[in-house]
Design brief:
Blueprint: E1 6-11, H1 19-32, E2 36-40, H2 43-48, E3 52-55, H3 82-95, E4 99-104, H4 106-119, E5 123-127, H5 143-164, E6 167-172, H6 179-187, E7 192-194, H7 202-214, E8 220-225, H8 233-244, E9 250-254, H9 266-284, E10 290-295, E11 298-303, H10 304-307, H11 317-326
Parallel strand pairs: 1-2, 1-4, 4-5, 5-10, 6-8, 6-9, 7-8
Antiparallel strand pairs: 2-3, 10-11
The structure holds 6-O-phosphono-beta-D-fructofuranose (F6P).
6-O-phosphono-beta-D-fructofuranose binds near residues 175, 226 and 260.
Main location: cytoplasm
GO cellular component, one term: 6-phosphofructokinase complex
EC number: 2.7.1.11
Length: about 325
Amino acid sequence: MTAIKKIGVYTSGGDAPGMNAAIRAVVRTGIYMGKEMVGIMQGYQGMMEKNFIDMGARSVCNIIQKGGTVLKTARCMEFRTPEGRKLAYENLKEKGIDALVAIGGDGTFTGAELLSKEYNIPVIGIPGTIDNDLSGTDYTIGYDTANNTVIEAIDKIRDTAASHDRLFFVEVMGRDSGCIALQAGIAGGAEAVLLPEKDTGIDDLIGKLEQGVDCNKTSSIVIIAEGDKNGGAYNVAKHVKEKLGDSFDIKVTILGHLQRGGSPTSFDRVLASRMGYAAVNALLVGETRKMTGLKGNEIVLTNLEIAINHSEFKLEEDLLEMSHVLTI
Ligand code: F6P
């Protein structure tokens, strides 16, 4: 059995709905297993500033339904330096924290992997990001909620697009990941989807839009991921306007950070609970530098370095192909 006595848990990088459900599961599982639990505020920032709070089963009451993260989060540049990580480790040691659960995305796991390697502290990651861009899991915590938020917005945009016979360019989050855009494109019945992983030329897009007009479509929605190579929805709208003049009545909507907030869906709460429970149990049987994931309906562990390796991540291209067919 393991000698772990005190487990630190933190959230880092962009917040995602369901992070609180994961914190709750980690804290309660740890306490159930007889461990002391410490919340590290603002991720790596808090590690360097000794911003620690002791947590009990009651300190995670009434948070399962809340968006955001009660432990707060930050993107911390100083932790990327060896000096920053040394300070963080010394602070963890002083507090008696001898294992970590890191909740976040690829940046969070890159930091966790380095800290664990350099100072031999066990760490298990839980994927919490709306981007769904990690290998080793079919779903990250927050992705389902963000998709539902986006589709609610697109349905509303469709009402006004149809009433005015307009062409809407809707920008969704995803600097490096087209997962939300692809999902939104299919569920929202969009005319086209522009993704960071694919080059879609403006001429191809225009061809598609004109084809729609030929098929008697009077309004259209195009979904654009923020990381699309054409430079986001405003740029795409500008280029289309330059080529087509006033033949389309064009509007742009940027959904922005509203996609990151809100109460997590039931799916995200259950996923977060399963992963939090699994993460603590993994630590206690001696696992380290792994991420919990959901494959099919099984909770599995994947090495952190594989989880964050972007070349391992595959966008579901067949869905993109399907969405072309369904918009004829
Ligand atoms: O990684 C999650 C995410 O929401 C991305 O989709 C987006 O590109 C980025 O974070 C935005 O980051 P910030 O909130 O720091 O602007």
